[in-house]
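Structure tokens please, single chain.
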Amino acid sequence: MNFLAHIYLSFGDADIAIGNFIADSIRGRAYEEYPDRIQQGIHLHRAIDTFTDTHPTTRKSSKRLHPKYSHYSRVIVDIFYDHFLARNWQAYSDTPLEAFVNEFYDLLESRYAMLPPNVQRMMPYMISDNWLLSYAEMDGIARVLEGMNRRTRLRSGMDRAIEDLWLHYDKFETEFQSFFEELVIFSRQKFDTL
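Here you go.
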């Protein structure tokens, strides 16, 4: 899953949300440098990623994209699924998406000093361009995919994946809805044991 889902699956716990958000920037056992609750957020993130990467529904979504995007197809599916979470936010949360996102941006700013350097560099762009809220719109997803393509030095072709989203929108959305119900249950069980 991508940023929005990981934050959502922190169930309102600020420290867990920070750990869940920065986890991709933390290699190996470097998480041990962080306070316990943030470490637990990093562990939760890794458990969510393992569950997601091995789930038959996400594999089905990824397989649809694999002929064009190879190993990048899983990253694209994560982005697509964040779109569907944002687009259908009211089905998952009583807090409006804009309020949820702004609260998280405030949290990031308050914890800036503890963020890894690459997250510190990314954060101002994320907030100024309002990435998390923009996931709800196709234009926002197109910008994310273009940015990811630039990060791969234009090798991935991810910028073209917006066409695949349009083409198979209903299939991806149905797969997301089915998968996300299971992911919420899994994540809640993990969260409750932290």
